[in-house]
Amino acid sequence: MESKDYKRRMQSHGQELYEKYMSLYHDDRSYEELYLSMEQFYQNRSEELKELDLKREQNPDWFRDRNMLGMTMYPQLFAGNLKGLIDKLDYLSEQNITYLHLMPLLKMPHPYNDGGYAVEDFRTVDSEIGTNEDLEELTKALRERGISLCLDFVMNHTADTHEWAMRAKAGEWEYISRYQTYETYDIPSRFEQTMPQVFPTTAPGNFTWCEEMRRFVLTTFYPYQWDLNYHNPKVFHEMVGNILFLANLGVEIFRIDAVPYIWKELGTNCRNLPQVHTIVRMIRMILEIVCPGVILKGEVVMAPKELPVYFGTQKAPECHMLYGVSSMVNLWAALATRDTRLLKHQMDVIHSLPDNCYFVNYLRCHDDIGWGLDEEQERKLQIDPLKHKEYLYRFFEGTFPESFARGELYNYDPASRDARSCGTTASLCGIEKGGFEDDARQVEKGIQRVLMMHAVCMSLKGFMMLSSGDEIGQVNDYRYKNNPDLAEDSRYLHRSSFSWENAKLRKKKGTVQNEIWKGLKKIEQIRRKHPCFRKEASVTTWDTCQKSVFAIRRTLAEKELVCVANFAEEGKMACLPTLNAQYEDLFSGEILNLQSLWMAPYQYRWCVRKNC
After folding, report:
1. Active site (annotated) includes residue 477
2. Which of 114, 252, 257, 470 is labelled catalytic?
3. What gap in Å lies between CA 47 and CA 451, rounded to an integer?
4. Which one, out of 20, 258, 286, 326, has a CA that is 20 to 30 A from the CA of 459?
């Protein structure tokens, strides 16, 4: 029996959901199956989660609160497994974390699983990480602490060892039809004419021959990841059911992996097609009907000006938020070049986007840094895009003269001279090099870079997600090279076990861990308290008359906060277009005039106008 809340939500979205569904699948009976499935998932939802749904309906922008602070981690690297993570939640609460993103933890093949993004079972936690009961216990413990759990949901593909793939290999047409497969290479060859390759060096081509099935399978990412066929409504039903199943275990945020790729059409580049937005819009409506306390975060790696379509419109919203990928890339580029002009330009573009566009910002994550900068803007600034990219990845590899960074290349292609960069924040900022050379001054500069980069990231529009270990200055771990299953993937340089011994040093004065922990806490505390970080605040960049000095201005009514950072190793005199008024630096307590503002090397200031 429908509850009044479910009925109300269905009345609000039902007609549009039906129309969107029919535009793809043209099958009333199939829609009826979806409808009944949604109702069943609602009935199975716990009363506690239904109460959360009602609360979130009253505050649909809850994730935009200035108290939001995220962290991402692999649970097995942080605490061994989910039970171990539950035992360590005091550590997260000590940092005031409100959003926890756990890397893929669903059942996966071993050892080759692309970091968990090859999924064998979307409804079962991997036995090496825990059980479904552990996951449900974890989500309950997190809710009690005011922490929302985010999980990756891999919509584009399954592992080739998933039950569907195994039954397809056995010749069952019901399951063959859930993937895009072809008896001959005729159609795949036509796809290849217009479909770019994701990993041309490590996984060339978009199709893989399956000997058991005697068919070519679409495999956009890796041969062991079979792309799903969303032309088949069964696939959509099952994947939506998987999301709702996990939502009923208490997952509150789903990071939809590789969103632009989920619909394939011959004669196109198979990315960002209109049907993708139909599917995402339907998922958004289904969540708002069954479990409106749950939201969507999209992984969309595109230029900022192209992102609004993934947020949808005010009348027909899609993702609640996206990753601030371009912010991350431009922050590191600014650090290496001591030039913030590209960063400022990208932020200006982001600030010009509609109000429904909201971002999760970060410095590092489980993945590499791909140098996808705005080439058109680079040329306007008389910067050669290819030479700039080469400089950046060589700088962060540590092979460029005078570089303070230590990292490694990922997916280097000698033909195109393209490459990405790997490493932890601490190592890329110089702490590893300084420590190895037993140079306290270098280490001190590295700590200042780490804190400056975090201060800038926390000043941007959106909220910040820390990478586990960054809060204690964890450096690269080169032991992955000793594991033959991992040695070829340099991303494991920064996918290392969390050091609880080093974490203890966060309370020991004078240690690297204490300096970073203490510095981050101060930044976080100011962000949580100051009204200019409220969701209603206006955010813009400001000119500083120094290309190495970056400034963000936040205003709310008569309140004003100016966040300034120097990306250079030399002191700089900045000049901001302010009134001739006095400002107080909330970090140092200094009284300043921003029209003539001295910025020490890698200094960051958050300045509030006096008597304002």
Report:
1. no
2. 257
3. 42
4. 258
